Amino acid sequence: MLKGTEVEMAKLRGAFSLLGSLKEAKRLGAKLDETTHLTAGDTFPPDDVRLEGTDAQTLLLRIVGGTTSDADIFAVLHVPASRDAINAFVLNLHTHVEAGSTVRDLVNESGNAVGVAIVEELMGLRVDHVVELSWEGFIGLIDEIGPLPTYSRRTFTSAGKTFTEGTNHLDGAATYTFCAADPVDDAEQTRTRNQRAVLRALLNTIDVRKLAKDAPSLTRILDHMTRGMKKTPNFTSSAITHVATQLRGLSRKDVTAIMVPSVSSRTADGQVTADFDTQALTTLRSALINGSSAEVSRLAAEGF
Predict the structure, then answer these.
(1) Sequence-ordered list of residues with C-beta below 8 angstroms from that of 187, at least 6 positions apart, any chain
(2) pTM score, two decimals?
(3) What is the helix (H) or strand (E) element at residue 128, kind and residue range?
(4) What is the maximum alpha-carbon separation in the chain?
(5) pLDDT exceeding 90 applies to what percent of the chain?
């Protein structure tokens, strides 16, 4: 058993270690704030055609840059003004929007401003922040936090990896394969459900309260996040901390993950296409505009 002096020295070493970790966390927070900025003119539509801002916070998240664009994730993270939920919505990039053009076509051709416009029109949410993460950084983030307990609706094999029906525990590389796979010819509906499952698992695995007390883990997570990140200037470390503080009382039951409602169908020439489910989307949009977290949770439970 340590004597008094040894105990004090152990405490002192622990204090210095914590200070070093906090200093590193501060450094990486500054790195996050200074990371490549997406300019407002290229990221948001003109203000006169946008929705009014509210006390809610909405972030358009894109995960890009893998070896195939099939793995790209286009998602919306939404915290209502009541701060009683975290909602994640994943869009099927293959869904048609207008004149035969898909979400992927329009965003690839015209950039994030069109992506923001699509989200605001479909969901009735004003987008406050836009963040692009690289798949390299996202894989590292999952390896740091995971493995992720991710649910698959079916058993399938892709890129030499087999995923079973039920819960699969995925590291970063397996997560990438799971998100890029297209095991069913249904206009990427299954792929999008897989991506939704990954985001749900990630949000349920991250323990904000634990990370707040674990500076070394937090610094590693920030390091992964900033690898190849692009963002709007208002997405800062202080903004993240502010919202995270308001969400400390939430539990896993307060986190929902929904695929923005769309349906697939086969055309006369044998092609499979996806279109937004207008009726279901109207119901979801109404719940979001009214700030009804309970209704959003009910829709999620119905399998959206």
Answers:
(1) 92, 94, 95, 264, 272, 273, 274
(2) 0.87
(3) none
(4) 83
(5) 58
